[in-house]
Here is the input.
Amino acid sequence: MEAIRRQQTIQKKGELTIRNLPVEAGQQVEVLLFISTPEQSSRPRLTAKQLLESGLIGLWEDREDISDSAAYARQLREKAQQRYDVDGIVDDSSGQ
Here is the structure.
């Protein structure tokens, strides 16, 4: 599945128009809306130097319950990507 990212500001309440997409008639698409609040969109992004100084790098270094941080991070990402239906059952319909 290919992902295309477009960001825009809503001009009219309840309406979103997306034009000039590289898709053909009959092609199926899935649309996800990530709605940001004003404070989220004005939050500054960290530079590489700021990120290194933030304490996030090496955050799990002293954790005794995590022997392989890369494997642990991969496991967290995989868990986050699973979709559950209303009954809490994994939805395998994505084809992945």
